[in-house]
Amino acid sequence: MTKFEKAKAEIVSEKTLADQWTRLSSFDLDYTDSRGEKHRLKREVYHRTPAACILLYDPKRETVVLVRQFRLPAQLVGEPAWMIEVPAGLLDGDDPEAAIRREAMEETGFRVRDVRFLFKAMTSPGAITEIIHFFAAVIDTSDRVADGGGLAEEHEDIEVLEVRLAEAMAMIESGDIYDAKTIMLLQWATLNVATLR
Ligand SMILES: Nc1nc2c(ncn2[C@@H]2O[C@H](COP(=O)(O)OP(=O)(O)O[C@H]3O[C@H](CO)[C@@H](O)[C@H](O)[C@@H]3O)[C@@H](O)[C@H]2O)c(=O)[nH]1
Ligand SMILES: [Mg+2]
């Protein structure tokens, strides 16, 4: 029995505040709290569509494949803007596994053979609808069949890095890697490295 047994949330109205690349809306909701008291709340939600990301691990070299690209929100908060991340992308209507195979190829040039679904996570559940599906795959040098680098027509400008897992973990401590999904996958890899072969 949890404290929230009696709690419920009913949407009263939704107003679209912006509707360009991603919709932003403001909701009024009637929230009945855990004591049974009803309150009218306002919540703004940014309607991000689902995404996927992947750990590409080469057990022979003990390396991971990472990508580096410009991220405007990082620049806006004064952090290093050419961020180092695991390959990731929006599903764009595909199922998560098909989408992550496509993104791995576009961004890194690696053809992924067996992919393993790990878990999904909401990245910022207080404000953003984004759900990311996390995957892992074992690769070796012969799986690199293209240069990667992203789609020219989308002006993607992506650098592909191959880094030893231990070094990538040290880059979290040093602040050189500070993207949440990347930290999660590197920590998962460190805990589960024996299963990655
Ligand atoms: N026109 C336009 N294009 C945009 C905008 N924002 C992004 N794009 C373009 O949309 C494409 C998105 O590339 P993906 O590889 O599909 O996604 P991602 O940016 O890597 O996103 C992943 O990482 C993000 C940051 O961690 C996550 O937020 C996202 O869910 C996903 O995991 C890129 O070509 C980017 O330039 C925008 O506001 N306007
Ligand atoms: Mg991407």
TrEMBL record:
GO terms for biological process: nucleoside phosphate metabolic process; ribose phosphate metabolic process. Its cofactor is Mg(2+). A motif (Nudix box) lies at residues 89-110. It comes from the Bacteria. Residues 47-185 form the Nudix hydrolase domain. One of its GO terms (cellular component) is cytosol. Mg(2+) binds at residues 88, 103, 107, 156. The keyword Secreted does not apply. Keywords: Hydrolase, Magnesium, Metal-binding. Gene3D superfamilies: Nucleoside Triphosphate Pyrophosphohydrolase. InterPro entries: NDP_pyrophosphatase, NUDIX_hydrolase-like_dom_sf, NUDIX_hydrolase_dom. One of its GO terms (molecular function) is metal ion binding. The keyword Nucleotide-binding does not apply. It catalyses: GDP-alpha-D-mannose + H2O = alpha-D-mannose 1-phosphate + GMP + 2 H(+). Homodimer. Belongs to the Nudix hydrolase family. NudK subfamily. PANTHER family: NUDIX HYDROLASE DOMAIN-CONTAINING PROTEIN (PTHR11839:SF18), UDP/ADP-SUGAR PYROPHOSPHATASE (PTHR11839). This is GDP-mannose pyrophosphatase. It comes from Rhizobium freirei PRF 81.
